[in-house]
Amino acid sequence: DGGITQSPKYLFRKEGQNVTLSCEQNLNHDAMYWYRQDPGQGLRLIYYSQIVNDFQKGDIAEGYSVSREKKESFPLTVTSAQKNPTAFYLCASSISSGSGEQYFGPGTRLTVT
Amino acid sequence: AQKVTQAQTEISVVEKEDVTLDCVYETRDTTYYLFWYKQPPSGELVFLIRRNSFDEQNEISGRYSWNFQKSTSSFNFTITASQVVDSAVYFCALIQGAQKLVFGQGTRLTINP
């Protein structure tokens, strides 16, 4: 089945630790995205990548880092510099950036204590 | 700047009632795309529809219908004969050019049996 996978579904970390969230897609999409969602809020863009080995900051990139070494994979690292890392993180992909609809993974709920 | 406003934070109706979710957008461009997504309790966003700015034709898909009016910058979503399974958070979103997808704050819809 084609789709986007994110693992794990729930993740717990201690404050001060870096943590990497995985995102894999087998849709052959060029563009991939990371969003953050806080309770009762809409989605805010963290980083996006239009093509392999290229990525751009979104609206709230501070404290996060990404890599895009393979078309299928776009991992997100939440660093200790992120002041409020507890949130729901959603990964998405689209055929290309711009007008195409984005398809979302199931999300990872990160809790940092 | 692009902006999407979903003024209804929460809506609660009884099953079989019709319900309309409002979406108002702001953009300076003449070419743009509008989307609706559904977020059930599981968290994953499900793509519902994409509409480009040159196509004002209303669309119907089963119990779902969308009314796009450029004159009022609105892209409203109506569910006819609502069902409990329609309970979710619904997001309206906008994209123009190769820019990022901008989401509204979402409307939490509860369908009571």
Helix content of chain B: under 10%
Poorly predicted runs of 5 or more residues of chain A: none
Please count the beta strands of chain B (DSSP E, at least 2 residues each).
12
Q: What kind of sheet is the major sheet of chain A? A: 7 strands, mixed
Catalogue the unreliable spans of chain B. Answer: none
Largest sheet of chain B: 6 strands, mixed
Question: Which descriptor suits the 3D outline of chain B?
Answer: globular
The geometry of chain A reads as: globular
Percent of residues in β-strands of chain A: over 45%
Radius of gyration of chain A: 13 Å
Q: Structural class from helices and strands of chain B?
A: mainly beta
Q: How many E strands of chain A? A: 11
Distance between the termini of chain A: 36 Å
Helix segment tally of chain B: 0
Mean pLDDT of chain A: 92
Write the H/E string of chain A, N to C: EEEEEEEEEEE
Give a quick rundown of the structure.
Chain A is an all-beta fold and 113 residues long. Chain A has no helices and eleven strands. Chain A has strands at 4-7, 10-13, 19-25, 31-37, 43-51, 54-57, 64-66, 76-78, 87-94, 103-104, 108-112.
Notes on the structure:
The complex is a heterodimer of chains A (113) and B (113). Chain A is mainly β. Helices cover 0% and strands 50% of the residues of chain A. Chain A is built from no helices and 11 strands. Chain A has strands at 4-7, 10-13, 19-25, 31-37, 43-51, 54-57, 64-66, 76-78, 87-94, 103-104, 108-112. In chain A, the strands form 2 sheets. In chain A, strands 2, 4, 5, 6, 9, 10 and 11 form a 7-stranded mixed beta sheet that branches. Chain B has 113 residues and is mainly β. Helix content of chain B is 0%, strand content 52%. Chain B contains no helices and 12 strands. Chain B has strands at 3-5, 10-14, 19-21, 24-26, 33-39, 46-52, 59-61, 64-69, 74-79, 88-95, 102-103, 107-112. Chain B starts with a strand and ends with a strand. The model of chain B has no long low-confidence stretch (mean pLDDT 93). The chains are: A mainly beta (113), B mainly beta (113). The A-B interface holds A 33, 40-43, 45, 48, 50, 58-59, 88, 90, 92, 97-99, 101-107, 109 and B 33, 35, 37, 42-47, 50, 52, 91, 95, 97-101, 103-106.
